[in-house]
């Protein structure tokens, strides 16, 4: 199994690691289940695989079924994945409009959903798409709650990143 193409389904439940023991967290183990669990992370009670590409990560290639400009766009998004806010992840300016957030999420889904490329040769971009889609879904889920969105908009505004034109609905 190549590390760049491994995509996992989330493991549910707080006790998922307990099923395999804490030896799974020890580095250098030869047990494949232990290595798999060591590559996982828990966010809000859901387990997912952390994507770490070895060898400098994927590069733009003509051998794939993805156009080169699409490959460059995905690489740019993936390189900035930890530096963008929830709104930027959805391609949206900070807003309190839940309809705009939903519309932006659906548009993001059209571009990032891994099933869009089903049956195509996309190499390491399969794992990148899965991670970007998972992050966009988590952002939409977070921003979908009006209380959390209002608190987040307040934090963004305090940090100087938010828009001055925040809808009254978000407050």
Automatic annotation (TrEMBL):
Domain of life: Bacteria
Start and end residues of each J domain: 85-156
Xref: PROSITE patterns: DNAJ_2
SUPFAM superfamilies: Chaperone J-domain
InterPro entries per record: DnaJ_domain (IPR001623), J_dom_sf (IPR036869)
Protein name (record): J domain-containing protein
Originating species: Nannocystis radixulma
């Amino acid at each position: 199994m190549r590390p760049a193409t491994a995509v996992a389904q989330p493991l549910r439940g707080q006790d998922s690691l307990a099923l395999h023991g804490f030896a799974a967290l020890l580095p250098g183990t030869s047990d494949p289940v232990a290595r798999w669990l060591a590559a996982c992370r828990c966010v809000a009670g859901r387990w997912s695989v952390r994507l770490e590409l070895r060898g400098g990560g994927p590069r733009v290639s003509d051998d794939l079924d993805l156009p080169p400009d699409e490959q460059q766009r995905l690489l740019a998004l993936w390189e900035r994945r930890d530096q963008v806010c929830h709104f930027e992840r959805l391609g949206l300016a900070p807003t309190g409009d839940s309809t705009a957030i939903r519309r932006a999420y659906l548009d993001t889904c059209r571009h990032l959903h891994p099933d869009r490329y089903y049956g195509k040769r996309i190499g390491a971009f399969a794992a990148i798409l899965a991670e970007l889609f998972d992050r966009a879904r988590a952002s939409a889920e977070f921003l979908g709650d009006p209380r959390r969105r209002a608190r987040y908009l307040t934090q963004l505004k305090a940090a100087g990143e938010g828009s001055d034109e925040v809808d009254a609905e978000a407050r």
